[in-house]
Amino acid sequence: MSNKAAVLVAGSWGTALASVLADKNMEVAVWTRNEAQRDEINNNHRNDRYLPGVDLSPNLVATSDMKEAVTGTNAVVIVAPSSAVREVASMLKPYWHEDMLVVHATKGFETESLKRISTVISEELGCEEGKIVVLSGPSHAEEVVKRCPTTVVVASLDEEQASRAQDLFMNTYFRVYTNRDMLGVELAGALKNIIALGAGMSDGLGYGDNAKAALLTRGLAEITRIGVEMGANPLTFAGLAGIGDLVVTATSRHSRNWRAGFMLGEGKSLDTVLSSMGMVVEGIRTTKAAHTISEKYQVQMPIAHQLYNVLFENLDPKTAVEALMGRDRKTEMEVITLETWEQWHT
Ligand SMILES: NC(=O)c1ccc[n+]([C@@H]2O[C@H](COP(=O)([O-])OP(=O)(O)OC[C@H]3O[C@@H](n4cnc5c(N)ncnc54)[C@H](O)[C@@H]3O)[C@@H](O)[C@H]2O)c1
Ligand SMILES: O=P(O)(O)OC[C@H](O)CO
């Protein structure tokens, strides 16, 4: 692999992943459409809007020219918001070649088509889905740039591509595991943001740790239920991309999803919340996607359903909690067992 990597785009997570690579003494080109941001990175080694107060490595160079960003590299990392992935991948297309490792670190779906991000990228590049790797797991950009110990998972339909991605990113503070279940890793990374919104909302309403533990546990149950129905391995949801990322997102003030939920719980409107964030809150689009997916697969996702009502049907958050607490009596053991999953897949 060449010693140069390209990262498309320069938001919080793109800049943090670029820093991981720069710490491995790689030459890293970060592509951004924003020329002021490009100049700030190149002249001041800062990206203050997205990572305030962080000094970036001089190995990290920004450019607004896609050709310049990706020329001379066979490792490209796409870290655009889900709403922009198709557009960014289409800009990469003229420079894509068979030997290029393409890793994406976006957590969401293409809302209109309900496609996963790896599908969107492979469609735009005109390549097999096995050429794409997803990187996911519990990882706040703010902690990665401080070199706090962090573990993530990379998954691909092609294990060799996943190993290449593991080699690319692994360093002393950034530990990378592989996983063969790309579908499960992508679903877990996207869907946990809904539960993080709900956990923030619960905190904003003034509810306590009992409520949050309930949301995390039952949230994981509904993520696993839909994931297994769609063909994912249930064990993926017990791993870094599942419970790991759910915990880090739903319990941390770094999380934009948790913060947005908190403000909604305090009674702020969705418009007010969005205009004050200034960064992507993927859980909002993902709640819409999950609402449609749960209907399509006829799988109950009660927490996502109530979040949908709060976000898009003006339901008062407190009433949403009452609706969740007042559901029909259930047994806890409805989550599909590994045995059942294996029977379905043999
Ligand atoms: N921030 C984190 O800690 C973190 C960690 C893991 C995964 N992620 C995921 O990474 C993805 C990106 O999140 P982020 O935190 O970097 O977002 P961000 O809000 O910090 O930055 C988004 C960037 O995308 C750019 N952008 C938006 N639309 C664009 C377009 N059409 N063309 C080109 N650039 C465009 C913006 O200008 C901005 O620089 C999300 O899916 C998120 O869930 C984030
Ligand atoms: O800040 P959030 O809520 O987008 O979450 C960031 C990451 O997904 C945490 O792993």
From TrEMBL:
<feature type="binding site">
    <location>
        <position position="256"/>
    </location>
    <ligand>
        <name>sn-glycerol 3-phosphate</name>
    </ligand>
</feature>
<dbReference type="InterPro" id="IPR006109">
    <property type="entry name" value="G3P_DH_NAD-dep_C"/>
</dbReference>
<dbReference type="GO" id="GO:0046167">
    <property type="term" value="P:glycerol-3-phosphate biosynthetic process"/>
</dbReference>
<feature type="binding site">
    <location>
        <position position="139"/>
    </location>
    <ligand>
        <name>sn-glycerol 3-phosphate</name>
    </ligand>
</feature>
<keyword id="KW-0547">Nucleotide-binding</keyword>
<dbReference type="GO" id="GO:0005975">
    <property type="term" value="P:carbohydrate metabolic process"/>
</dbReference>
<dbReference type="GO" id="GO:0046168">
    <property type="term" value="P:glycerol-3-phosphate catabolic process"/>
</dbReference>
<feature type="binding site">
    <location>
        <position position="33"/>
    </location>
    <ligand>
        <name>NADPH</name>
    </ligand>
</feature>
<comment type="pathway">
    <text>Membrane lipid metabolism; glycerophospholipid metabolism.</text>
</comment>
<feature type="binding site">
    <location>
        <position position="192"/>
    </location>
    <ligand>
        <name>sn-glycerol 3-phosphate</name>
    </ligand>
</feature>
<keyword id="KW-0560">Oxidoreductase</keyword>
<keyword id="KW-0963">Cytoplasm</keyword>
<feature type="binding site">
    <location>
        <position position="12"/>
    </location>
    <ligand>
        <name>NADPH</name>
    </ligand>
</feature>
<feature type="binding site">
    <location>
        <position position="141"/>
    </location>
    <ligand>
        <name>NAD(+)</name>
    </ligand>
</feature>
<protein>
    <recommendedName>
        <fullName>Glycerol-3-phosphate dehydrogenase [NAD(P)+]</fullName>
        <ecNumber>1.1.1.94</ecNumber>
    </recommendedName>
</protein>
<feature type="binding site">
    <location>
        <position position="137"/>
    </location>
    <ligand>
        <name>sn-glycerol 3-phosphate</name>
    </ligand>
</feature>
<feature type="binding site">
    <location>
        <position position="257"/>
    </location>
    <ligand>
        <name>sn-glycerol 3-phosphate</name>
    </ligand>
</feature>
<feature type="domain" description="Glycerol-3-phosphate dehydrogenase NAD-dependent N-terminal">
    <location>
        <begin position="5"/>
        <end position="161"/>
    </location>
</feature>
<feature type="binding site">
    <location>
        <position position="245"/>
    </location>
    <ligand>
        <name>sn-glycerol 3-phosphate</name>
    </ligand>
</feature>
<feature type="binding site">
    <location>
        <position position="13"/>
    </location>
    <ligand>
        <name>NADPH</name>
    </ligand>
</feature>
<dbReference type="GO" id="GO:0005829">
    <property type="term" value="C:cytosol"/>
</dbReference>
<feature type="binding site">
    <location>
        <position position="256"/>
    </location>
    <ligand>
        <name>NAD(+)</name>
    </ligand>
</feature>
<keyword id="KW-0594">Phospholipid biosynthesis</keyword>
<feature type="binding site">
    <location>
        <position position="282"/>
    </location>
    <ligand>
        <name>NADPH</name>
    </ligand>
</feature>
<dbReference type="GO" id="GO:0051287">
    <property type="term" value="F:NAD binding"/>
</dbReference>
<feature type="binding site">
    <location>
        <position position="107"/>
    </location>
    <ligand>
        <name>sn-glycerol 3-phosphate</name>
    </ligand>
</feature>
<feature type="domain" description="Glycerol-3-phosphate dehydrogenase NAD-dependent C-terminal">
    <location>
        <begin position="181"/>
        <end position="322"/>
    </location>
</feature>
<keyword id="KW-0521">NADP</keyword>
<dbReference type="GO" id="GO:0006650">
    <property type="term" value="P:glycerophospholipid metabolic process"/>
</dbReference>
<dbReference type="Pfam" id="PF01210">
    <property type="entry name" value="NAD_Gly3P_dh_N"/>
</dbReference>
<feature type="binding site">
    <location>
        <position position="141"/>
    </location>
    <ligand>
        <name>NADPH</name>
    </ligand>
</feature>
<comment type="function">
    <text>Catalyzes the reduction of the glycolytic intermediate dihydroxyacetone phosphate (DHAP) to sn-glycerol 3-phosphate (G3P), the key precursor for phospholipid synthesis.</text>
</comment>
<dbReference type="GO" id="GO:0141152">
    <property type="term" value="F:glycerol-3-phosphate dehydrogenase (NAD+) activity"/>
</dbReference>
<dbReference type="InterPro" id="IPR008927">
    <property type="entry name" value="6-PGluconate_DH-like_C_sf"/>
</dbReference>
<feature type="binding site">
    <location>
        <position position="107"/>
    </location>
    <ligand>
        <name>NADPH</name>
    </ligand>
</feature>
<feature type="binding site">
    <location>
        <position position="280"/>
    </location>
    <ligand>
        <name>NADPH</name>
    </ligand>
</feature>
<keyword id="KW-0520">NAD</keyword>
<feature type="binding site">
    <location>
        <begin position="256"/>
        <end position="257"/>
    </location>
    <ligand>
        <name>substrate</name>
    </ligand>
</feature>
<feature type="binding site">
    <location>
        <position position="255"/>
    </location>
    <ligand>
        <name>sn-glycerol 3-phosphate</name>
    </ligand>
</feature>
<dbReference type="InterPro" id="IPR006168">
    <property type="entry name" value="G3P_DH_NAD-dep"/>
</dbReference>
<feature type="active site" description="Proton acceptor">
    <location>
        <position position="192"/>
    </location>
</feature>
<dbReference type="InterPro" id="IPR011128">
    <property type="entry name" value="G3P_DH_NAD-dep_N"/>
</dbReference>
